[in-house]
Amino acid sequence: MTILVTGGRGKIARAVSAGLTAAGLDVCVASREPADLPGAIALDPTDPVSLAAALKDVSQLFLYADPSSATSYAEAAEAAGVKQVVLLSSLSSHADNGKAAADPHAQTERAFATASYATTFLQPGTFMTNAIYWSYAVRATGQIRLPYLDAEEAPIHEQDIADVAVQVLLDGPGAEHDGKHYPMTGPESMTRRHQIELITELTGVPIEAVDLTPDQARVEMASTMRNPAQFESLMSYWASRIGSPHPIEPTVELLTAHPGRTFRTWLADHPGLF
Ligand SMILES: NC(=O)c1ccc[n+]([C@@H]2O[C@H](COP(=O)([O-])OP(=O)(O)OC[C@H]3O[C@@H](n4cnc5c(N)ncnc54)[C@H](OP(=O)(O)O)[C@@H]3O)[C@@H](O)[C@H]2O)c1
Fold it and tell me: What is the pLDDT of residues 177-191, one digit of tens each?
């Protein structure tokens, strides 16, 4: 039986499919735009025929969170006899600011609430890969412009998220992961100002860190955010984390038996980015 990895062009999906393939499993990669991915199949989650075809003979599914296609995936997985779904959700679905119910990751999780197959929701916080977007700005302007530069976060390496997903899929349905929500962070709390200082320290590239006011951020960043409500929720969250070290979740170490990779490691893993 096959493991279907959706969102094939995504950074996490690429690392998950590489890990499963290296472990010798039968992996099928699906993407809405498979042209750039040798061997990948096309999957349009809005098309029931495409979904049913992609899920034929699939026993396990790795999925990105998207409320617009969540119910279609949940029902198609049921109809296809899928045994396990591992969903890439977010720590934001755990938010205790009263806004979690509207969070798109939480909405996606709810679509799987009545599934008869095993589900595991991976809930990582801030990704280290967000610094890839910073690198575009540094190359263009020499600046990183963000609100709440002194907010604490515990960014997580994409390989650690993938390692956890691979372990859950390797262990399979019926193991201890069934029905679990796994909050996940990197191994250390740090401000984004400190991350920017580390980038300069390790790469030698000078960077001007510009601390935007919330209103400046709304103007400069809102156009890149697909969901304005989610952006406002993020702003409140960042405001709440100033001077408040981010709790460290032990999930990566517990499930993979290796410590979470640090931001220094991430920078070494992405040479030439800045
Ligand atoms: N950035 C953060 O700090 C952070 C924190 C927590 C959670 N997250 C979540 O992590 C995910 C981003 O992961 P990433 O870094 O691997 O993403 P990425 O490299 O930016 O790629 C996103 C991928 O999502 C797939 N996708 C989008 N909508 C989809 C849909 N309706 N059906 C199937 N696939 C869909 C696309 O795959 P194809 O086009 O190939 O089909 C795309 O390649 C998002 O869901 C985000 O909300 C991010």
Answer: 999 999 999 999 999
Residue nearest to atom 24 of ligand 1 (CA): 7
The residues, any chain, with a CB within 8 Å of residue 218's CB and separated by 6 or more, are 231, 235
Tell which one of 29, 64, 68, 241 to mutate to probe ligand 1, the residue whose CB is within 8 A of the most ligand atoms.
64
What is the number of structural domains in the chain? 1
What average pLDDT does range 2-30 have in this prediction?
A: 97
- Parent domain of 6: 2-128+156-187+247-262
Question: 148-175 pLDDT, tens per residue?
Answer: 999 999 999 999 999 999 999 999 999 9
CATH of the domain at 167: 3.40.50.720
Instruction: Give 195-204 pLDDT, tens digit per residue.
Output: 999 999 999 9
